[in-house]
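Dear support,

I submitted the protein below through the web form. The confirmation email said the job was done, but the results page showed an empty box. After a refresh the structure appeared. I'm attaching both so you can tell me whether what I see now is the final result or a partial one.
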Amino acid sequence: MSTPTIGVLALQGDVREHLVALAEADALARPVRRPEELDGLDGLVVPGGESTTMSKLAVTFGMLEPLRAFVRAGKPVYGTCAGMIMVADKLLDAREDQETLGGVDMIVRRNAFGRQNESFEAAIEMAGIPGGPVQGVFIRAPWVESVGAAAEVLATYGGHTVAVRQGNVLATSFHPELTGDHRVHAFFVAMVKSA
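What the results page shows now:
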């Protein structure tokens, strides 16, 4: 595969930044709002935003089950921040009616690093990313409380897991799309190409 086509779920959140980062990482990127727009995609990014709103909109727009089917089919998916929450099998501190796509055997705690005014940046050493640490932007970010045997921890910060991979699903607590450093997106594009 030379140039993969990767969608960015465009129900809510920082869609534009992911489209730019994916293009810089040599992928053809396009927004996805309707189930039929999943057809022909080689991979999908679930962006940061507000996970409860994203979950509700996925139900409202008939996207929830098609997205779950996309994940179950083994297609590569990358979730950042709220996207990490969306690809988790289990959540803490979530509304009882909050839906997820699943895909990673992990328990994620929403807003674990604090409120909006407690947002921060930190250098993150992430397995599989050459060239030194990546700059992690944490905005009302979750962390991973625990992972199952099939999930691989790729990065930690302050004793908490902030990046994981399970098969073709990648998730980070932080937002690499906001930094201008596209190495994490390039890592995901490589996952898509090898899938």
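Response: this is the final, complete result; the empty box was a page-load delay. Residues 183-194 form the longest helix (12 residues).
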